[in-house]
Specification:
By secondary structure, this protein is of the alpha+beta class. It has helices at 2-18, 41-55, 84-91, and strands spanning 31-36, 59-67, 71-78. This is Lipoprotein.
Length: 92
């Protein structure tokens, strides 16, 4: 069983690195927002974008609406990245 998990993990890594132009898909600090939407999907998407910008001071990187039992809005929010110098000072 551990061999299967290793193969699946390796396959996912290969799949993620093979996509796109070599850019990073996700940052460690990215916030994934998920909201089941019982109203107009565009209103839900605007709420998610507002939360990303106002509460997290972030930038909406990607979003999509998936049709499940109810429409579900997925949004990827990237808050400002801490500066490397700040992290080094905090570690000392």
């Amino acid at each position: 069983m551990p061999l299967i998990k290793t193969l699946v993990a390796g396959g996912m890594l290969a799949l993620l690195t093979a996509c796109g132009s070599g850019s990073v898909l996700y940052e460690r600090t990215d916030v994934h927002l998920i909201l089941p939407c019982y109203q107009d999907e565009n209103i839900c998407l605007k709420q998610m974008a507002g939360r990303c910008a106002n509460e997290l001071a972030g930038k909406l990187m990607d979003s999509e609406i998936r049709q499940e039992d109810v429409p579900v809005v997925y949004a990827l929010c990237r808050p400002p990245q801490p500066e490397a110098g700040t992290n080094a000072r905090a570690a000392n």
